[in-house]
Each structure stands twice: as structure tokens, then as C-alpha cells.
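Lab manual, section 2.4: Encoding a predicted structure.

Procedure: take the sequence of the chain (653 residues), apply the prediction step described in section 2.3, and record the output as C-alpha cells. A sample record is shown.
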Amino acid sequence: MSDEYWLEPQGDYAARRQAFLHFSAAARPVGGRTGFFSQISRLALGLPIDEAVVYEALEFVESRQDCADFSAVGLLRILYQFPDSPHLSATLQAAIQRILLGFKYWIDEPGQEMMCFWSENHQILFHTAQYLAGQLFPDQIFPNVGQSGRWHMDKAKPKILRWIDLKARIGFSEWDSNCYYDEDMAPLLNLADFAADEEIRTRAARLLDVMFFDMAVDSFRGTYGTSHGRTYPPHVLSGRNEATAGAGKIAWGTGIFNNASNMTAICLAVSPGYQVPPLIQKIGQHLPDELENRERHSLRTEEAAHWGIRYDELDTAMLLWGAGQFANRRNVEETLKLGDRIASHRFNVVIRPYVEAIYGTYCALEAGGIPHDGDIDRTTLAQVNKYTFRTPDYQLSTAQDYRKGKPGFQQHIWQATLGPDAVVFALHRGNEDEVSYKYWVGRFPRAAQYRNLLIALYDIPAAPLPGPATVVPAEAGGNAMPSPGPAQEELLDYTVAVLRRAAFDEVVECKGWVLARKDKGYVALRSQQPVRWSADGVLQGEGLIAQGRRNIWLCQMGREAVDGPFGTWVERIAAAPLTFGDRTVAYQAPGIGQVQFAWEGPLTVNAEVVMLDSYPRFGNPYCQAVFGEGRYEIAHDGERLGIDFPTLSPAPV
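Recorded output:
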């Protein structure tokens, strides 16, 4: 069953929830770890369910496969919200109970598994599952650890509150993830709906408010078209494929219902206790002539102690691991020592071999007298300063000057969005694998944006760092593979840009520029190095390939209401003075002025320095929030909402 993409807000909140439930309930049942979520929609509508797909999820959880914690979210919601449903058999309820009682809820508990506990989203999934399972069965003994449900609640509560508090203060390491926010929001919705503890319930709900606000100010007509801390090509190539699309369409009425079993959309649609605040719904629907949003997320390894994190203490070190920061020179040895203590099978298969390769690389560099900054881990999701410029016709968003020249894996640095399919971005690929996208991002550019102009400079090394290769254990396979070590980095000698011409109404080439129009929005793309079109060689589709390890990409946006007819704008862009040097560029940008940027030094516009760091938590017309405080005052159209995590004050100001 397909759904219509809404470019303009439609319906009210209650109607959109119902629309999603009917979309979900009508879908053909699918199995796997989360396919059974659509049966939750059927329970909510009083319809019979296909128990076979629920049993399939139970087998998945019982075998402790990676992402079994996703399944636990839905299984717990079934037991909490629909225990008296005539469509839920006593036999199935007993089976769910048995599986939840026998589950391994944290990395330090006994038992073989192949589950990831350490990423940001998995942490809150596991903590939520442990707390709510314990609350549901307080006096039952959970045989995996021989402890009661109350013991599990006591163990999970401080972890939940610590995780929520850190996200409330500094945002997300998987920032603005259009796939992993889905996996953060679903457990938070379970806590907001079912946690008996008022502190947990309130904090979870208020963090959801902040996350929906975050989505609202970085979305364009239903597409979460911004920089993402972690994502994958299918999610950024089209707004129709984002895992956050369904929740966004429920929240403010733009986008698409694209997955009948989407965890967050289902939890939001059936939630008895949480609603996206009406003010945030309005902000998600607001398209002013210009919107500038600055925001900051995550932390740096060297600041860990400031946030109460110790490298040698599992409970807090996990928060640093949740930011992908396993193998900074400051903490790499402590990570390996903690791994010895927890004896996690997946850690030993997936994380340890990679961390050992990183550690060996540091040792090789130091033995050879080669200087380094102690920060060579490609999985690092260190602190980011993001900037988004949006109009009714386009959106441009960038992670400002983010880890220039360093290796990446799933971080999406910048994107221009003119429609759900009309997206443009450039990158250095991590490899040429067009099937598995685990390491789809290679070396980061030095990227900077000023209003509707983006500049990204690339400097790709010719040879990888010295050091050992990752030793792949015999048990590794599928998504349980350790990352290649720095010495194995492929370092492709070209960069690419996504631009699917079929998604635009007009595309022209003029004096080295490729310029495109979608409706009344314009985009201009330019590479310092010559480009060639590829029909299917850029993330399995059309785009531009620019040979050369050093290159500069420019992207400037325009719109009819400001820049006049498309043809006139094309002539103006093509005629603008543009000078490339060795990792330097000077551009007399139409509508902006003289812009200069280089591998070193500031971005300047008309000789004025543009700030690329030290952003607030949020800085936009709706909210000015100080980074690190956890206090938010959101205002729009005469309404105000105050969210004060330190005092637990969720009431409107």
C-alpha cells in the first residue's frame, strides 16, 4: 500500500494519527525484527493480528541477534497497551513474557549474544526495555541474571536519566539522524507512556519535544534534508525513504508514510500519553521567507570529564562510546581494558579488532616519530556545529568545518534540498562498494556555509597511515564485521556529487557550472576539477565525478522570488568572478559579495569573518538555547513553551 507525499501541511494531528494507523494496518504483514510493529496498529484499531510475525520477532530476540532491542520496544508496548485485547491470545502473551524474562539487557550481563549495546540509540533502547520489563514483572526472577524485576528497574533507572540528561544538555552524537532518531524516539515514547516513575516519564516526554523541534527547524517540506551524524545513502537520496518521514507527517502534515512497521510512527500514532506539542507542530508547518538555524551537538573526547564521563568506568564510558569515540589516543587503552572486563561477544568480534588496529597505528606513528593529533578513528561522532538556511523553495545545510581531512564512515556533511527527490550533495567515497554502505563516506572536506552558499574543500592523502590491519575474527560476518584499520583505508582519488537530473525541471551547464531548477528553487554546482557525468556510478545513480585528490566544490542556491527568472540567474552565476588556487577559493557570489575560503584560516564574506564554531544548542527565530544547560524556551506566533530539564519544568512559560 503506497502513500501520497504531502509537500504542504494537511489534516490535523488526530486525523494524521488515524491515517497512519489505517495505512499501517492495511499493509501485508512482514517478518523480521520489526515487521510485527504493524500488528500494533491493528490492535489499536481492534483488528485481528497475524501472530506468526510476532513469533518471528520472539525468535529474533531469543537468539540475541543484533537489534533484538528494537523488537523488545514493540513487544513491551503490546503487553503494556493491549493486554486485554481479544485479538491477543493468552498463549502469545505468555510467550512474550517468557522471552522478555530471559533477555540479556546489558553488556555486563552473562550470556552469548551478537547484539550492539554501545551506539547512542541502542543504549536507550536497552535501558528502556530493561526498566519497563522490570516494572511489568517486578517480583519475577529474570533467569539470565537471577535477579528480580525490581533489581532491573534499579539498574536501568540511573542509566536512563543519565542518557536523557546528556542529550538534553548537548544534543545527539548521531545528530539529526534520519534513521537513528527513529530508534531513539520509539523507546522514549514507551517511557513517556508507561514509566510509573514521574521523573523518567516527564524527562522522556520533554526530550521528545526537543527532538521534534530539532526535526522541525531542519526539515524542508517533509524532507529532513540536513547534515546527519549517521545515515545511509537510501535515506539521503530521497526524502521518501527517510525513517523519520512517517513521524514527521504525523507531527506536522508534510512528508510520507513509507513504512507500515516504522517504530516511531507506530508508537506516536497509538500513544495514549504523548502528543507533539501544538506549538512545535506549527513550527514544523512554518515556512518563512528565510530561516537561519544554528545548532550544536555532541562532545569532544577531551571534554569527557566535564560531562561526568570516565574512560575507565563502564557506565559513563559507554556514553563516550555512544559518540563513536572508542579509540582516541586519550582513551584507546582504557577501551581495551573495559572490553576485557565485559567479555561481550559482539564487542570482541566487531569493536576490539578495530580498536586494536587503531592502537597499533598510534604506536607505529609514535615509533616512527610521525606527529599525530590522537584522533584518527573514523567512527568518531565528535562535536558538530550545524548551520541550516531555508526558504520556501530550498534548504541548504552543513556541518561547519567538521573534522577536515579526517576519515568518516556514515556522517553526512552537507546537503541541498529542493524537493523529496531533488537533492544535491558532494562527498569523497570511503570505497567503491555499491551494495553495502557501512563505510560509504571517506575523507571529510573542510566545509563551510554562509546563507545560501556552501564551499567544500577536499585534500585526500595518497597513502594511508602506517600500522597494522584489522584482524577479522572467524565469527565475523554480515553486519558483524570490524572496520578496516587506518592502514587499509582505500583513499579513492576522486570526489563525487549526487545530482539526479530527472528530479529537476531544468538542468543546464554553463562555464563549468551545473545549474538546475525545481519548481521555483535553483541550485548551482561547481567543481574546481573537471567533471564527467555518470549514469549509475554515484551511489547507484546519476551524478558527477571529479578526478583529483584536491578539489573544491561550490553550491549556491537561488529562488525566483529573490533572484528572478532561472535563465537570468544562470547568467549571473556563470559570469561571477571565481578564482581557484591550491586549496583556496575566491568567489564574487551573486547576492552575497566577495567570499574567500581556504584549507587554513577563516571563511570571510566581504572581509568579515564568519563564525563556524561555538554555536548555541539552538540559535534561530524560535529558540535561543545555551549549549550545555538543558534549558529551552521555544516561541512562535504568540505562543511559548518552556522546557527546563534541571528543574523538570515542562509547563508553558
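Check your result against the sample. The first helix runs from residue 13 to 25.
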